[in-house]
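agent> step 3/5: call structure_predict on target '50S ribosomal protein L35' (Hesseltinella vesiculosa).
agent> reason: downstream docking stage needs a structural representation; sequence fetched in step 2, passing through unchanged.
tool.input:
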Amino acid sequence: MFLASLTTSFISPLGQSARTMATKLKSHSGAKKRFFPTSNGNYKRWQVGIRHLNASFSAERVNRLSGSVLANNTQKKMLRRALPYSC
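tool.output (status=ok):
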């Protein structure tokens, strides 16, 4: 009888029953470095394609690629799962 009660619930040395805690969700480290949450629930990211092989690009195109843009709806849906504690 005594052993059966020990197997069903664990009692801590202080006399209080210990609760099991749920594990925390992990954030995707690649998404963490590339996307930044804004205050209204969107995500901001930098434009891609400007690091190298851009000698043939016009100045207008290089300037356009240097800015930041907001993530689209498909990316936002994936980012909500990849970054659970951001927004």
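agent> step 4/5: record observation. Helices lie at 2-8, 29-34, 59-65, 73-82.
agent> proceeding.
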